[in-house]
Structure formats: structure tokens, C-alpha cells
Write a structure and sequence with these properties.
The complex is a heterodimer of chains A (78) and B (579). Chain A has 78 residues and is mostly helical. In chain A, helix 1 runs antiparallel to helix 2. The longest helix of chain A has 15 residues. Chain A is globular. Chain B has 3 domains: 222 residues, Rossmann fold (3-Layer(aba) Sandwich); 145 residues, HAD superfamily/HAD-like (Rossmann fold, 3-Layer(aba) Sandwich); 172 residues, Gcn5-related N-acetyltransferase (GNAT) (Aminopeptidase), CATH 3.40.630.30. Helix content of chain B is 45%, strand content 17%. Chain B contains 26 helices and 18 strands. Chain B is globular, with a radius of gyration of 27 Å. Classes of the chains: A mainly alpha (78), B alpha/beta (579). Chains A and B meet through helix 2 and helix 3 of A and helix 1 and helix 12 of B.
Chain lengths: 78, 579
Amino acid sequence: MSDRLIDLFASVLSVESKVLNDDSSPTNTGSWDSVTNMMLVASIEEEFGIELTSDEIVEMTTIGNARAILQKRSVAVV
Amino acid sequence: MSLLEVRSKWLQLANSGDVKQSKQHVAIAATFTADPIVPYLGCALAEAGNPTFVSTLPYNQLHQLCADWKAVCGENEPNTLVILWRIEDMLRKRFQEFLRGDKEALAIALNEVVILGQAVSHLRSTFRGSIIVSAPPFPHSPDHHIQAARSILEAGVFHRRVIDKWISQISRAGNVLILDLDSLQRYFGIERSLDDRKWYLYRQPYTEAFWDELGRELAASLSRQRVASKKCIVVDCDNTLWGGIIGEDGLAGIALGEDYPGSVFRDFQHQLLTLRSQGVMVALCSKNNELDVWEVFDRHDGMLLKRDHIVAHRINWQDKIANICSIAEELNIGLDSFVFVDDSPFEIAHVREALPTVTCLQVPGDIALFPRTICSFRLFDQEHISAEDRVRSDLMIQERDRKGLSASLSADEFRKALALVVEIFECKPEHVARVTQLINKTNQFNLTTRRKTSAEVVELCNQPSWTVLAVRVADRFGDYGLVGVVLLHKAEKTIEIETLLMSCRVLGRGVEEAIFAQIADTARAVGVEEIVGEYIPTKKNTMVSELYKNHHFIPESDCGRWLARDLSAFSWPEHVRRI
């Protein structure tokens, strides 16, 4: 099943969706660095039509955390 | 395309051969994190047909970059360096002190600007490629609000003085382009351009939308270096220069003056006068009775444009396509140098269809939007306006007088009567801007059509194996200015004409002979006995396909190369005075 959030991360991080999961983070994903992190924030905001708070951006250290933030905002990610 | 799509597109492009193997590499250094610009700049350059590798340099290392660019850039050498800086970053401390009443902080800040200017001058003398620097935007920091009551008196003064000092330093460095980050940010808007979250999290001040804007502006600035701007604006009369139809409404019935809608047309005429002062020629193409149109020019007191401002006109009932083509022939410039403005959708579609290289602009239905529309196309935008540009329209009018003389005399008598004066000299720094302009906009009398940036021209001037010659021409009717460029490359036994170009206005009067005589002298001076010429055909330069054949050269092979072995065949033409 296709997962919008995973697909978005895969596209920005230039990796295949299947290598990512909710535990993916900058420590275990090579292309997730400070530069791509800025792109991830921009892409999440544009794709899901929200504006993240600074604290939410800081918390977004795994895909799972990003999913939790979006769920709290009642954004459908699947 | 959405911003998200632009970024995805760049991820693909960046891995494509076009970008990876591109010889163009733009590197960006800034006093803030600038990485988000990469996809937007990269896509804009690729879209303009100029796929380019884009990189960013370590944050806040402008001085290190200027002192030793090789150390900062590493192995992957860029050929364009972009330097972006802001008062909020580089002069933050001085700015705060100034806001708190310390007037001496301004002097210290200006000194820091001078030091950065000197660093850029040093970079200019050590880096061959193009350099673009920002004009710092109006400072907007937590220390003051842009709308605060005293903003214009405090932050405004600080900003203005810093900008003035910076621009004068940069002009002194020579051949450094300025990206006006200030006007860009004002036009886009502070609210839309700044993102405080990203500033505090990443030292990255801007919204994605502003990065996109900045990327496109930078791409346009880079492209302008190689693409010629437009030379002539051809305008219709009724409902374009004035409101209404002169043939039906009469002199008293047309709208032109202080009040709407006449004020809109008056502003359009103001725009034409400003363009004219920047070297753009203004021509008329109107389906009308000629006498009616001139009556407006001579008698309507709302007219700003005068007969003398018009370099060519076709006021008749013929097809506009034929009229525009005949104006192009009269002015001796290519159709792609033309912008055509008309209110009729039929005429616009007709010209666009038949003459696709002419840029066609239709007067908008809401006439109040007309001046802004014309402005926003920025078709005549250019970094340098040369002395030759400023007087171009006057030159065209002198040309009419010459034609009058030539009609009354034989070809030989005309040549003598013109009293031509030709000066050929080595290009000095003050000529680089004009020489570069000619290299990039001359299409017809151009043997090889090799375009170059001003940085490349400076580089050739400094190489002992190259000679960069500029040609200045005058006659009894006036000064044509700097109208020709010759780039000579000295090899062991030959001298090669890498570039030979000239404005068509001086064609066929002996200037070509004078140039070849000078090239032969240069060859003798360096002790070689053979000159190699090259002709690279394009769609536009057929007029010079026989130039070498007609000037004592013999074809070397079928590859467009020509040889001249007998230097004594070249002599300075008798009727031309040499300076």
C-alpha cells in the first residue's frame, strides 16, 4: 500500500520508498542531512497544506515523529 | 509548476548528464544558509537552455573565498561565483549600535563595506569567471520594524549609506555584476519573503517562494550576459500612442494628456523616451493617412514624442509584416531585435505568425495596466548602457543625412566626401563593457559569432598570446563610436582571427580594408607571415561569407578556414584617415 508520507520522504531523500519506515532518521538514512531536512520541511508543508511550528520541526527527527505531528494536526497521510 | 514540483524536477536534473557534464558551474556564497536556492536556480537555468551545475559554499566565508577562492571551492572549480550578503548578518553589530544612538557605528560599518569591496577586487583579479554580488536588502531584524516611525531616518539612512558605499566599491572592482536583492525583496514583499522559523532553526532567512524568485532572477541575470537585448520598439499609433483613432476622432477627439485615459498613453510615451535614452530605437508602423499622424506629432500639445525621436516610420495601408521587414532592412538590424506593440489582436497574431522572432506585445484590454505590462517584460534590460547606446537614435538620423549625400554622388566620390576616420587600438579596461556588448549582440557582420562574457574579454586582454583590438569610426556627419572588435590569437607561425565583427552601419566604406591592414601590421610586429581567418556560417551572417575571399585570403580547406600569406597585399585605404 502506498504511503504518502513515506513516498514524500523517499522522493526528497532520493531513495526508494521500500528502504524507509517510521524508524528512519538522519542517523540511519545517509541522504537525510541538514540541507535535505530543510527540503523535507518545505515539502511536507506544501504537500499537506500546513505550516509546522518551530518546535514541530525540531521534533521531526524520524518519519514516525513526522507522522505523529501530522496526525495531531488531523492530516490524512495514508 | 508548484515549488514542490520544481524541487523534484531538480533532483532528476541534477543527476542527468546535461547537468553533471555541463561546463557551467555556479557556486553561491552567502552570509546566511543559501542551500534552498539550488533547485530553483538550477531549474531556471536549465529552462533557459543553459543546464548548469549549482553548488553552495560554506556559510559565512566571504572573506576567505575572496582571499583564496581555490581553497574554498575545492577541486570542482566554478566559472561563476555569486556572493550574497545582508546588513543583518555582516553588519548586525554596527547596525544595532547605530539604532541605539551610536553614530560612529556607521563609519565603522562603511569601513567594513570597503574591506569587503577590496576583497571582491582581489577576487576579481584572481578569478577568471563571472562574479555576481548582491546589493544588500533593506535590513529587517528584531532590533527594529520596517514600519516603525523612525525607520526611514535610522535604518533607512544606514542602509542607503551602506548601499552607496558598496556600489561605488563594486564599480571600482570592474566587471562585477550586481544582483539587486534589495529591489527584489521590496517588490516581493518583506512579509512574503522572510521566514523566522527557518532563520532561527537553520540561519536561513527566506521562504521557498522567495528562493524561487531569487533563483529565477539570478538565472535571468546570468542569461543576460550572453543574450542580446532588444534594439528597436515598433509601435502602432491609434490606441497605442494615443487613445482613439485620429482618422475618425480628429485632433481634438483623441485621448492624450493629463487625464485618464490620455494619461496612460502619455506615460507610455514617457517610457518610449526613457528607452530611447538607453539606446532603444523607436519606430512607427501604423495603418493610417501619414498626414494625419504627423499632424498629431506637430500640433497635439499632449505629444511627448517628437518627429526627431522616430528613427523610421511606415504609415500606410500596407501589410504590417512587409512594413516591419522593411524597417529592419532600413535600420540594418535583425528581426529578433524587434519588439512590436499594437492594440489589435489581429495585427499581433498576424505578425507573430509570420515573424516568430519578433516579440509581439498587445496593449492590454484594461488600458491602465499598459505601462506596467510594458515595464514588466524587461526586454530591454541590460547591465551596461554605453555612450554609443545613449546616442544611437541620433546616429540613425545622421545616417539619413549620409544617404542623402550618397544619392547625389558616385560611389567613389561618396567615399571621399565622407572623410572617414578610423582608429584601431588595444582594448583597455574602460572599453571592456562596450566590446563585450558588441561581441554578444552583433549577428550579421560577425565571422565566427563567438559570444563571451566581460570576464572572458578581460582574461584575453591580459594574455600575451592574445590581442584584443577595438575599432572606432567617425566621419563628417558624426561619430559612430566604438563599432568593431577583432580578437587575434598569436600561434607560433601564424596569427589567427578568432573574432572579427563590426556594426553594419559602417559597412562598405573602407573600414574592412583598414582592419585587415591593421591585422597585417600586428602580424609583422610579432614576426609572423601568415594570417588565418575563419568563417562559421549562421542564419544571419551570410553577408560576410565572401569577406575573406574578397580580401586576399585563399580557402585552406572546406572547413571554413582561410589563409593570407602575402602581407604586402594589405594596405590602409587611401581615403580613410588613420589615427
